């Protein structure tokens, strides 16, 4: 299996598992919490069949990647992404992130620039800044995330069951947009994650990305459901669109957080249209 080494913890190498399929212009897809690259299966198939090169990888601590007890912050996640980009020598890339993966896209562009990037897509985004503070009154209370940490510490198996309820809005979508089998597969993927990473990633969600946003100088597509219960649209995608000049916003009516699965046809259509869209000269 293909791995890229991004560091070491004591005597063990920290290796990221990746998959690289197809040929043509590369599209790099970054998954959300607490999953790995396999959550992009509906997008990978479409991209490869459409003549693109589709690359996915598992974030440290998740999927088939190493499970260290360090590096669960967005500076490190962006450095890991940079290692993927440079090791595979990817150029003219469309960067695509879902949920937690949108933080990698944003911090990477803020820290490493767009020399290798053609355009970017963020689906159910975390940026610009989730935490409610004096200078961010539209954020979310710290107590909510403290509760997440308490639940994950107490019983992460129950925590993931509850998380998936809101990830897919199962009370309205189970048996319609998502099957019990798909939910079970996602739960199995979630519990395979590092217990340490499960906890350590939650504070990372409160990263302030506002200083990264002015550095985004490639076309940006934002896609989100207006029924997102994990990262509510008014606190995230709506504000991100307002903060990044020229960004394009697509809002999916009544759609939950996990739209790469529940609304794959919509995501694939918007993704393909955006990748094929001509960039104006000088943009």
Question: Which tags fit this structure?
Answer:
single chain; 283 residues; alpha/beta; Rossmann fold; eight-stranded mixed β-sheet; 8 strands; 39% helix; peroxidase; Epox_hydrolase-like; oxidoreductase
How would you portray this structure in words?
This protein is of the alpha/beta class. The protein has a single domain, classed as Alpha/Beta hydrolase fold, catalytic domain (Rossmann fold). The chain contains eleven helices and eight strands. Helix 9 links the parallel strand 7 (220-225) and strand 8 (248-252). The model has no long low-confidence stretch (mean pLDDT 96).
CATH superfamily: Alpha/Beta hydrolase fold, catalytic domain
Largest sheet: 8 strands, mixed
CATH architecture: 3-Layer(aba) Sandwich
Quickly name the level 1 CATH class. Alpha Beta
* H-E string: EEEHEHEHEHHHHHEHEHH
How do the helices and strands line up, and which of them pair or pack?
Layout: E1 3-9, E2 12-21, E3 26-30, H1 41-49, E4 53-57, H2 74-87, E5 93-98, H3 101-112, E6 117-123, H4 142-154, H5 156-168, H6 170-173, H7 180-191, H8 195-204, E7 220-225, H9 237-243, E8 248-252, H10 259-262, H11 264-276
Parallel strand pairs: 3-4, 3-5, 5-6, 6-7, 7-8
Antiparallel strand pairs: 1-2, 2-4
Domain AB hydrolase-1: 26-263
Keywords: Oxidoreductase, Peroxidase
Family: Belongs to the AB hydrolase superfamily. Bacterial non-heme haloperoxidase / perhydrolase family.
């Amino acid at each position: 299996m293909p791995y890229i080494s991004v560091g070491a913890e004591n005597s063990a190498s920290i290796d990221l598992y990746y998959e690289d399929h197809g040929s043509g212009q590369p599209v790099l897809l970054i998954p959300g919490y607490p999953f790995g690259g396999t959550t992009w299966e509906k997008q990978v198939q479409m991209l490869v069949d459409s003549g693109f090169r589709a690359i996915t990888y598992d974030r440290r601590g998740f999927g088939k990647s190493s499970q260290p007890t360090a590096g669960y912050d967005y500076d490190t996640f962006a450095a890991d992404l940079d290692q993927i980009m440079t090791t595979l020598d990817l150029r003219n890339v469309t960067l695509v992130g879902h949920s937690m993966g949108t933080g990698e896209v944003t911090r990477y562009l803020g820290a490493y620039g767009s020399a290798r990037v053609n355009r970017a897509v963020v689906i159910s985004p975390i940026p610009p800044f989730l935490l409610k503070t004096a200078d961010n009154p539209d954020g979310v209370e710290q107590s909510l995330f403290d509760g997440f940490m308490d639940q994950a510490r107490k019983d992460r198996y129950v925590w993931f069951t509850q998380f998936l309820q809101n990830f897919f809005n199962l009370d309205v979508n189970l048996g319609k947009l998502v099957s019990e089998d798909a939910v079970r597969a996602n739960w199995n993927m979630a519990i395979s994650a590092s217990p340490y990473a499960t906890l350590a990633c939650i504070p990372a969600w409160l990263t302030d990305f506002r200083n990264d946003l002015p550095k985004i100088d490639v076309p940006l597509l934002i896609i989100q459901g207006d029924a997102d219960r994990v990262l509510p649209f008014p606190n995230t995608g709506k504000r991100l669109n307002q903060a990044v000049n020229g960004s394009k916003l697509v809002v999916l009516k009544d759609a939950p957080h996990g739209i790469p699965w529940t609304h794959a046809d919509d995501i694939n259509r918007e993704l393909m249209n955006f990748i094929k869209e001509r960039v104006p000269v000088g943009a």
